[in-house]
Amino acid sequence: MKTFLRSLALLFSSSLYHSSVSSAPSYAANKFCGVVAFLIFYSAACLHQLAEAETFTLGYLTGSQRTPGNLDYQRPGITISGAISLAVKEVNEGELRSLGHSLDFIVAETYGDEVNSIRQTADLWTRQVVGYIGPQETCVHEGRMAAAFNLPMISYYCTHRDTSNKQDFPTFARTRPPDTQISKSVVSLLMAFNWTQVTFLYLDHPDSLYQPVADTILSILNCASITVRDVKTWNTIYHHGFMANPFVDLVEQTFKNTRIYLILGHYYEHVGLMVALYNRGLLDEGDYFVLGVDIEQYDPSKPDKYLRGLLLEKRDTRAELAFQSYLAIFPTASIKFAEFAKEVNKYMELPPFNFPNPLGLFGGTKQISAEAAYLYDAVHLYAKALIKVLRHGGRPRNGTAIIEAIKGTKYRSAMGYHVYIDENGDAAGNYTVLARGLTCNLKNKTVPGLMPVGTFSQTQSDKLPFF
Ligand SMILES: *[C@@H]1O[C@H](CO)[C@@H](O)[C@H](O)[C@H]1NC(C)=O
Ligand SMILES: *[C@@H]1O[C@H](CO)[C@@H](O)[C@H](O)[C@H]1NC(C)=O
Ligand SMILES: *[C@@H]1O[C@H](CO)[C@@H](O)[C@H](O)[C@H]1NC(C)=O
Ligand SMILES: *[C@@H]1O[C@H](CO)[C@@H](O)[C@H](O)[C@H]1NC(C)=O
C-alpha cells in the first residue's frame, strides 16, 4: 500500500513539473493526467485513513444511584455526569477527529461503594476500554488494578494520597487537586518574603480535612529549610463571636518566640487569631504578621465576610484594623462557571444519563459542583495525551505512556483558570493570594474585605510554584 501511494505521488509531482516546462499543446494533456493521478492519490489516502479510524471507548466510573435501602448516599454522579458528554462531544469535533478517530464512553455504576467500584473496574477491562475516567470516592484498589492492566485511570474525584505514589500507581492521574497541594504555594510565598522562621497553628480535629494538609506543610517547610519555632493546635471548630477565643491562650504561649504566624483552618477561625493579636497590642508596631491558609475556595461575591465571624452581619472594626497585618492563600475562585454549568445541565438530561431536572419546569438549573469541571478536564486531558501518544507512534492502550504524556502539562480547566499537572500526575490546583483591600458590599457601601493580589505560576513540575 505504502509503495503504491509513493509511486502515485511521484507520478503526480512529475506530471506537474512537466506541465510547467513543456510547450503549450501538450500542457492540457499533462494537466489532465495530473488531475487523474491526484484523484487516485486522494481517494487512496482517504481509504488508508478510514481503514485505521478507531473509536476509543473509555469506562466512566460513577456513583449516580443508591443501593436499595441506602437513603444517605449523595450520588455526586447525578449533578456532574453531563460534563463527560460535553467533553466527549468537544473532543470528537477537535483534533482527534482530524486524525480520523473518535471517543466514546461506557457508564459503570459504583453505588458509591468500593466493592462495586472494584468489580466495575474489572468488568470494564473485559469490555476492552482504553482507559478509565474515575473512580469517584475510592481509588486505591481500582488504581492498582489499572496499573496491573496497564490502562490509564484519570480520577475527577478521589483525593486519597496513596495514589500519588507513582511506584505503585504508574497509570493513575487526577484532575481534582488533593487539598495538600496548597502546601507548596504556602511555602513558596514564605520564601518570596524571606520569612524563614514561623510558628504554625492549625485545627486538629479527628474528622477535619486540615490534618493531612498540616502534615504536608510541615514536611515541605522542613525541606525548604524554614524553621518552625513552635507548633500549636486547637481542637474544636472556633466560631468567632460565639465562644471563648482559643487564640488568646495560644498567642500568650507563643508571642515571645514568634514574628510570623502561619495559621491553617477555616477563614472565620483566622479572625479569632487576628483579634487576639490585636487585643494583645502586638499589631501596633507592625512587628507581627500572619499568613492564613484555608482549603475552601475563595468567594469573590462576598469579600467582606472574611473580616468577621461566620453568621455575623455586623462589621468588626478591630478585626478590620488587625487584617492589615495579614495575607491569605485560598484556592482560586472559578471563573465564568455559570455558562459551563448550563451546558452540563443540558447534557445531564440527555442519553445516556436522562437525569431529570426537577427545576426545569420553572426555568431553574441544578446546582453543579466543582467536580463537574474536574470530570470535564479529565476527558480533555486524556484526549490530549492520547493524541500525543498516537503522534509519537506509541500504543494508545499503554497506560504508562498515556500518564507519562500527562505529567508536567498545563491546561485550562473548566474552572476558568490554568492548572498544572505535577510529577505525580496530580492537578496542582490554582491558588490566590489575598490581602485586605476596599470592596463594595451588597448594600453598595465601600467596606474593607479580602481581595486577590496575586496567583502562583509553575515552570517545572518538581519545583515549588513562583509567587
Ligand atoms: C530576600 O533575600 C534575598 C537575598 O538575601 C534578597 O535578594 C531579596 O531582595 C529578599 N527579598 C525580600 C522580599 O526581602
Ligand atoms: C509503554 O510506554 C512506556 C513509557 O512510554 C514504555 O517505556 C513502554 O515500553 C511501553 N510499553 C509497550 C508495551 O508499548
Ligand atoms: C493559575 O491561573 C492563572 C490564570 O489562568 C495562571 O496565570 C497561572 O499560571 C495559574 N497557576 C498555576 C500554578 O498553574
Ligand atoms: C452602586 O453605586 C454606584 C455608584 O455609586 C451606582 O452607579 C450603582 O447604580 C449602585 N448600585 C446599586 C445596586 O445600588
UniProtKB/TrEMBL annotation:
On whether RNA-binding is a keyword of this UniProt record, the answer is: no
- Keyword Signal, does the record have it? yes
Cleaved signal peptide residues: 1-23
Q: Which GO terms describe its molecular function?
A: peptide hormone binding; signaling receptor activity
**What is the protein name given in its UniProt record?**
Receptor ligand binding region domain-containing protein
Q: Which GO terms describe its cellular component?
A: membrane
| Biological source species | Stomoxys calcitrans (Stable fly)
Tell me where in or outside the cell this protein is found. Membrane
Q: Which Gene3D superfamilies match?
A: 3.40.50.2300
One Pfam family cited in the UniProt record for this chain: ANF_receptor
Please name the InterPro entries in this protein's record. Answer: ANF_lig-bd_rcpt, ANP_Clearance_Receptor, Peripla_BP_I
Tell me the Gene Ontology biological-process terms attached to this UniProt entry. Answer: signal transduction
Q: Which domain of life is it from?
A: Eukaryota
Q: Which gene encodes it?
A: 106090003
Residue limits of the Receptor ligand binding region domain? 82-434
Its keywords, alphabetically, are: Membrane, Signal, Transmembrane, Transmembrane helix
